[in-house]
Amino acid sequence: MQLQEIAQKLGCTYEGDPHLEIHGVASLAEAQVGELSFVSEARYLPLLEQTQASAVIVAESTPLPRPLPCLRGRDPRLLFAQAIELFYQPYRAPAGIHPTAVIDESVQLGEGVAIGANVVVMAGAKIGDHTQIHANVTIYPQVQIGSRCQLFANCVIHERTEIGDDCLIHSGAVIGDDGFGHIPLADGSWRRMLQAGRVVLEDGVDVGSNTTIDRAAVGETRIGRGSKIDNLVQIGHGVKTGPDCVIIAQVGLAGGTKLGHHVILAGQSGLAGHLEIGDGVRVAAQTGVTSDIPAGQTVAGYPHQPVSEWRKSMAALRHLPDLQRSLRKLQARVAELEDRLGLDRDLKQDP
């Protein structure tokens, strides 16, 4: 594909030979002749001195350290993401039903559905147009799946789950399994509470590999439109998120917690149950959230605190060994002075 053609498809300007042939995309460090790369931040500009890329995507006003064909736009990272789509298309199975699939006669299938090997679809399920169900997926009764979804190999969708249009469910994900509900009894044992609710994924939700989203005892667990969930995330029963939330790997959300819109939970953060997290909140990696957070805050640490306070605490913590040594020296010096003054040791205060 020629440089000028790529610029036209991406809706951006170009500099250099319009007929330059580009056959792929790569990072600056790994790019070879004939490949397109990008620079999203000024600190990476020195890499342009060594890159073998034939062209790069840069911001509109970014100066280049050496002459190099380029595409220019407001958001180089977004342009590069769009460029990847020009050169790479993910696998799509051909429409049809594999002979080893087991599909209940009551199942409703839309047009152009693809169902792979060893898939099981149980009674009352509905699958929308052009949705792809890959190998070994199990879909329990009364599940509804919208159009243009992708369910990758070995995921499990439990009863009554509702999945909107344009959703991605990656391998090993479990959607709609029982919430973790148990009642303590007088003899110290536990009685399991049946989970009669459901999970709802609104349109455009992505669910990563080996992520679990539990259904509620009553009511529903709901993931808002356009939200993106990474691998290895645990979402408890009755959780509700607003639209366009991002939940990164190894996050744990206890039951009943509610997220506003555009909330970001960074990796390995954990949220206690029945909390209210406001719109636009950002939670740093490994943060432990123990109480409600108002809209717009960025928090970090355990227990969580505003990120500015947490940074001050971490800066002070790095000096703790020096402070401890100084304190011991001061204690020794005070003791020495008291001995010289002949003070009664019984009157000394505990440091």
TrEMBL record:
<keyword id="KW-0444">Lipid biosynthesis</keyword>
<protein>
    <recommendedName>
        <fullName>UDP-3-O-acylglucosamine N-acyltransferase</fullName>
        <ecNumber>2.3.1.191</ecNumber>
    </recommendedName>
</protein>
<feature type="domain" description="UDP-3-O-[3-hydroxymyristoyl] glucosamine N-acyltransferase non-repeat region">
    <location>
        <begin position="20"/>
        <end position="86"/>
    </location>
</feature>
<dbReference type="Pfam" id="PF00132">
    <property type="entry name" value="Hexapep"/>
</dbReference>
<comment type="similarity">
    <text>Belongs to the transferase hexapeptide repeat family. LpxD subfamily.</text>
</comment>
<keyword id="KW-0808">Transferase</keyword>
<dbReference type="InterPro" id="IPR001451">
    <property type="entry name" value="Hexapep"/>
</dbReference>
<comment type="subunit">
    <text>Homotrimer.</text>
</comment>
<dbReference type="Pfam" id="PF04613">
    <property type="entry name" value="LpxD"/>
</dbReference>
<dbReference type="InterPro" id="IPR011004">
    <property type="entry name" value="Trimer_LpxA-like_sf"/>
</dbReference>
<comment type="pathway">
    <text>Bacterial outer membrane biogenesis; LPS lipid A biosynthesis.</text>
</comment>
<dbReference type="InterPro" id="IPR020573">
    <property type="entry name" value="UDP_GlcNAc_AcTrfase_non-rep"/>
</dbReference>
<feature type="active site" description="Proton acceptor">
    <location>
        <position position="237"/>
    </location>
</feature>
<keyword id="KW-0175">Coiled coil</keyword>
<dbReference type="InterPro" id="IPR018357">
    <property type="entry name" value="Hexapep_transf_CS"/>
</dbReference>
<keyword id="KW-0443">Lipid metabolism</keyword>
<keyword id="KW-0012">Acyltransferase</keyword>
<feature type="coiled-coil region">
    <location>
        <begin position="320"/>
        <end position="347"/>
    </location>
</feature>
<keyword id="KW-0677">Repeat</keyword>
<dbReference type="InterPro" id="IPR007691">
    <property type="entry name" value="LpxD"/>
</dbReference>
<dbReference type="GO" id="GO:0103118">
    <property type="term" value="F:UDP-3-O-[(3R)-3-hydroxyacyl]-glucosamine N-acyltransferase activity"/>
</dbReference>
<comment type="function">
    <text>Catalyzes the N-acylation of UDP-3-O-acylglucosamine using 3-hydroxyacyl-ACP as the acyl donor. Is involved in the biosynthesis of lipid A, a phosphorylated glycolipid that anchors the lipopolysaccharide to the outer membrane of the cell.</text>
</comment>
<keyword id="KW-0441">Lipid A biosynthesis</keyword>
